[in-house]
Amino acid sequence: MLAEHSKNKKVFDNGFQIAKNADLASKKYGQKNVINGTLGIFYNDNEEMHTLDIVNKEYKNLSDKELFNYSSSISGEERFIEAVKQYVLGKNYSNNLDNNFLEVIATPGGSGAIYNTFRNYINPGEVVLLPNYMWSSYKLMSKEVGGGFQTYSLFNNRGKFDLVNFENSVIELAKIQKNLVIVLNNPCHNPTGYTMSSSEVKGVMEILRAACSLCNIILINDIAYMDFNNKVNNFRDFYQDLPSNLLVIITFSMSKSFCCYGLRVGAQIAISSSTETINSFLDASLYTCRSVWSNIPKGGMTLFSNIVLDKKKYKQLLLEQSYMKNMLKDRTDIFLEEAASVNLKTLPYKSGFFITIPFDNISDEKMADKLKDENIFTIIIPGAIRLAVCSIPKYKIYGLAKTLKNIITTNC
Ligand SMILES: Cc1ncc(COP(=O)(O)O)c(C=O)c1O
To answer: I want to staple 375 with a disulfide (CB 3.0 to 4.6 A). Which of 34, 90, 245, 352 is the partner?
Structure first.
């Protein structure tokens, strides 16, 4: 019955099921005896889904019209577009564009922004270049638009971004494809928590500028976790001296930074040195919006712009975000310190929701079973445990590294 291109579709991303199993275990064994480090949702230290007061208050003050009406435009509310530019690129963004053109399209979350980009830039049969550790939805999306994927290895043997492997992977594909879409997820990479240094970003851009002589390059930087970076974000490194066939698309999400995962608000921020490239981006992206989801929730966009464009509310937002960031830092500091003391290996972590713990002595399925036996619920990615520290209260972090070390080292 299914159309040919829809046969063999199956979602193996079982995070929501694991989270449900964790809830069941909590009911059976008591919440304090269960560790739920499954989803990328921030829970406070009382194990309640965390929300921001300023976001709550602003949302509940929206009028019926602001909440329930259609957006005034397919590309998103005008104030929202301005607010996204200021939020991501800085209040003075227009003075710092370095001769580039900038356009923003509102999308249903960061997912919509990534999908919209894949849809319009991957030619049939082409592959997108993804990091070898990644948010698994990228793979589904590339298949959904008729493409495939290949990976670059994220880390070299010194635990830094592997520029050599990145360059080789880019050149190999640039030689045979018309378009090459590449994904970075920086800062606070999911699932490792790696954040690239400015010189690593500059190294990536140098490689891409050179590869542009071989094919068109579309660089996506997924910034879903941008507000959990322990350093100041500087996205300007991504748009210096852009050749006309190198398009940078920063994909923004409100989900994590505003604790409103279900609101489904995000954006594509496209930056190019060419008017033609930017105009064709607008045309194609708007077409996809109109034909797939039409427009996105007006209430979410209004909430965002009301906060970001108001000095006092914005200040309050930053205060509440830094409270969350400190909570997260407390937890990750404890975990990493204890991991070092029991010799538990983790992938290089800098900041963000997740820490990844590699293992190689047992199968992924066996590891999931062993963790479940200890009432620990996490997502297993091939050969590694993705621990969502964002959802584990501080008191449960103590001793967790030692427990994981025991699980990994005991023979089964
Ligand atoms: C790396 C990464 N990118 C993008 C997203 C998309 O989030 P949303 O569609 O809720 O904005 C997520 C969500 O978990 C993510 O982990």
So the answer is: 34
- Where do the structural domains in the chain lie, given as residue ranges? 4-53+314-409, 70-311
**Which one, of 153, 157, 149, lies nearest residue 182 by Cα?**
149
Q: Which CATH architecture has domain 70-311?
A: 3-Layer(aba) Sandwich (3.40)
| Minimal-distance CA residue to ligand 1 atom 12 | 224
Count CB atoms within 10 A of the CB of residue 157: 6
**Each residue's pLDDT tens digit, 135-151:** 999 999 999 999 999 99
Mutating to test ligand 1, I would choose from 135, 154, 391 the residue with most ligand atoms within 8 A of its C-beta, which is 135
Atom of ligand 1 nearest to the CA of 261: 10
CATH number of 4-53+314-409: 3.90.1150.10
Whole-number percent of the chain with pLDDT over 70: 99
Pairing of strands 384-388, 354-358: antiparallel
Interhelix angle 163-174/198-211, rounded to 10 degrees, is 20
Provide residues with CB under 6 Å of ligand 1: 40, 109-111, 135, 185, 190, 222, 224, 253, 255, 261, 266
Residue type, 266: G
